[in-house]
Hints:
Low-confidence stretches: none
Number of strands: 17
Structural class: alpha+beta
Helix content: 25-40%
Mean pLDDT: 96
Order of helices and strands: EHHEEEEEEHEHEHEHHEEEHHEEEHE
Strand order of the largest sheet: 2-5-6-8-17-9-14-13-12-11-10
Amino acid sequence: xxxxxxxxxxxxxxxxxxxxxxxxxxxxxxxxxxxxxxxxxxxxxxxxxxxxxxxxxxxxxxxxxxxxxxxxxxxxxxxxxxxxxxxxxxxxxxxxxxxxxxxxxxxxxxxxxxxxxxxxxxxxxxxxxxxxxxxxxxxxxxxxxxxxxxxxxxxxxxxxxxxxxxxxxxxxxxxxxxxxxxxxxxxxxxxxxxxxxxxxxxxxxxxxxxxxxxxxxxxxxxxxxxxxxxxxxxxxxxxxxxxxxxxxxxxxxxxxxxxxxxxxxxxxxxxxxxxxxxxxxxxxxxxxxxxxxxxxxxxxxxxxxxxxxxx
Length: 311
């Protein structure tokens, strides 16, 4: 018999321990990460038990009577252990859907963890959603490099990396967060009229909580920061959360050199280097210039999928 319990603060140790041992865990799912923006999201995370044994977690929040998994995270979905098999996950979805109906939620919106983040195969949720009549409502396209089988860079990317090396630029990993975030914010505002998703206070908090997982890098010329990268590292996947290039950085190929260094040196032993999505308007518009830059480094498509079940 399966039962569902809404997360409470007293569950933190049990929750984090389960994430640590999950077959599709991610540091995003630790409570210290999930709660850095708790003022913006009404947490409604779920613990699923089989009798007295915890068998799954669902990071989720409630918004206008809709259960989302989770609007404050890049991706989410059901967290399970290697011992979870298909029939059990089907029953777990039975319990989640029943919980949502009993609480009179209008629908469930389920944002999946892309397969490159699976430690071992974890697609049981896809089949369970098929059985429960979930509908695919959105796809975002991300670009990732398979680091054990890399595609050769395009001529343009090779040329810019070579140009940057001839300019004697240096890559640094000891970075003043305040200065870095100021430059990142200026570049994002001037180029795209947007702000970073994280404030400098939030990123400093996350850096303190997850020093092994969140890393800042810069490419510099005589102390002047020309480009930068914020990497979220799971050891399996290095994800570029933010990338920026100043005007002079673009002229000298600073970001190209930085990416080349991250891919070939810092994260060479990871399975994937993930650039993130290149679309807008709920996935309907592809930014071809942006994805072309990523594909120039040999990255190819990985989809982020969103499913919905109306209740």
